[in-house]
Amino acid sequence: MILDTNDADLAIAKLMKQGGTPVRAFLFSVQYQVTLDLPPSANRYWRRVGHTLYRSREAAQYIERVHFTLMSAGFVDPIKNDFILVADVYIARGDLGNREKVLSDALQGALYLDDKQIVQIHLVRHQARVKDQRVVLSLVG
Predict the structure, then answer these.
(1) With 90 as the cut, is the pLDDT of residue 63 above it?
(2) Fewer CB within 10 A of the end CB, N or C, for the chain?
(3) What is the CATH number of the domain that holds 121?
(4) How far apart are CA 100 and CA 22, in angstroms?
């Protein structure tokens, strides 16, 4: 749920009146939203040959699909400002954390310039059938 400024101010005032201290209040609205394929697990993202670490073919193909999807959705120029990344991850099984870094790497260069622009990441896991796996990505800021 995204609160507008008045609702958020009321919620913070009510919390403080009850003796609570709000840690953070985010008064942002969604700027962009796009649906992407579920990224491969980090366990399948990297390959090692001797002392050399490189991206797997699956990783390279995923990055290409993400960049194509973003360009098709109208994301032509990367975002230059800091933002909050919110990802609703619809997944049948596997570790959510192993997907986040792969997703962040795939988005870099197409959606934003550098992943240091991400000031917060919120991942929400949703159970899904294998055929319905996806990531609904929202950028707020």
Answers:
(1) yes
(2) N
(3) 3.30.1330.70
(4) 27
